[in-house]
Fold:
Amino acid sequence: MATAPSQNLETFPNPQPERDYTIRIRVPEFTCLCPKTGQPDFAELTLEYVPDALCVELKSLKLYVWSYRDEGAFHEAVTNRILEDLVAATVPRFMRLTAEFNVRGGIYTTVVAEHRAPSWSVPAPVQLP
Structure:
C-alpha cells in the first residue's frame, strides 16, 4: 500500500500569522474500537482552530485519523488525545475538537474538547446591520 496509517502530524507555516482566522475541518469517517466489546465506533469529527505560526497538513491528518481504526478507546479519551496531539503539533491560538459518535445501544455521544493559548483573547464579534 502506498500510504498507511500514521501518528505523525505534519504542519506548514501559517500564510497569514498576523491575522486571527478560523480553519474548520470536517472528518465524517472517523472510526475506532469500543474498548469493552471490540466493535467499531463511528464518529464525525469537526476541528475548528485559530492558527498561530503553523497549520496542520491535511494528508497527514487523514493518515493520523486512520491510525485509530484498530485502536480501542473510550469516546472521551480519544477526543482529548486527538486534541492534545493536534495542539502539540500546531500550537494554535485556539482549537476545538467536536466528536459526534453514532448511536450505540440507543445512546449518542458528543464530546467537545478545547484548548486556548494563555496569551490569546477572543476578538469581539462584529455585528453588521
Remarks:
- DSSP finds two helices and six strands in the chain.
- The mean pLDDT is 95.
- The first strand starts at residue 11 and ends at 13.
- Residues 26 and 45 are 6 Å apart (CA to CA).
